[in-house]
Amino acid sequence: MTTSPFWVSAFLDFAPGGFERGVEFWQGVTGYGLSERRGRGGEFATLVPPAGDDYLRVQELGDGDGRVHLDLHVENPTYAAEAAVELGAHVLVRHEAGYVVLRSPGGFVFCFVTHPASRKPAPATWPDGTRSRVDQVCLDIPRASYDAEVAFWQTLTGWEHEPSVSREFARLHPPDEQPLRWLLQRLDDEDGAVRAHLDLCCDDRAAEAERHVALGAAVVRRHEHWTVLADPVGTTYCITRRKP
């Protein structure tokens, strides 16, 4: 039995009061539909692509700040959780529905789930002919926990580690059929919990940023290879110049 996930989903967790506006924005960004809400309080829903399997989900938090967390889809969440604990993770919840919520050694929240998926959605094509897709998750890791956190994820997933993409970035390489690339960013911050953000690929970075601003986003910074934005409820993410 393996702990390597056959699929990874990203959850946009919205702070209290931000769910409806956050979901509206990300539906506009992706062009995806919305499932019925589920959970005891109706706190969960899925962004549903027109074709392919879902990999973006949304949650309304009961308290705290917004964040991104990951669901790792595995054959046996209990076995995977036990292996993660041996590597330094901590179990937060063993849910009666079968999923397990954990915190990584660096403080990043993630879940093991069993939901089947295998078909990566195609990029969305917009009226101007350009295309885009949420195609990457970036783990933002403070310097003090960087080496241990990278070793944890590399061992848990079994994926190839590319350590020197640039001065501050490295990669893990999931199988090509998975929907999300994995980027590992070494922050300038010395301490703090590991967090994550989402990145989009697109044909035209300037046009894609303009589309997001029209939907309610704000441009935070422009870099040579990517643009940092914040959605209407404060979720930070990036548009990159990677082609879909």
Structural notes for this entry:
The protein folds into 2 domains: 7-113, 2,3-Dihydroxybiphenyl 1,2-Dioxygenase, domain 1, CATH 3.10.180.10; 124-240, 2,3-Dihydroxybiphenyl 1,2-Dioxygenase, domain 1. A hairpin with a 5-residue loop joins strand 7 (100-103) and strand 8. Helix content is 18%, strand content 37%. Strands 9, 10, 11, 12, 13, 14, 15, 16 and 17 form a 9-stranded mixed β-sheet that branches. The chain has an 8-stranded mixed β-sheet with strand order 2-3-4-1-5-8-7-6. The chain contains 4 helices and 17 strands. The chain is an alpha+beta fold and 244 residues long. The protein has helices at residues 19-30, 77-86, 146-157, 205-215; strands spanning 7-14, 33-34, 44-48, 56-60, 67-73, 90-94, 100-103, 109-113, 124-125, 131-141, 160-162, 169-173, 181-186, 195-202, 218-222, 226-230, 236-240.
Mean pLDDT: 96
SSE pattern, N- to C-terminal: EHEEEEHEEEEEHEEEEHEEE
Strand composition percent: 35-45%
* Number of spatially distinct domains: 2
Biggest sheet: strands, sense, closure?
9 strands, mixed
| Cα Rg | 17 Å
Structural class: alpha+beta
The best one-word shape is: globular
Q: Name the CATH superfamily assignment of the largest domain.
A: 2,3-Dihydroxybiphenyl 1,2-Dioxygenase, domain 1
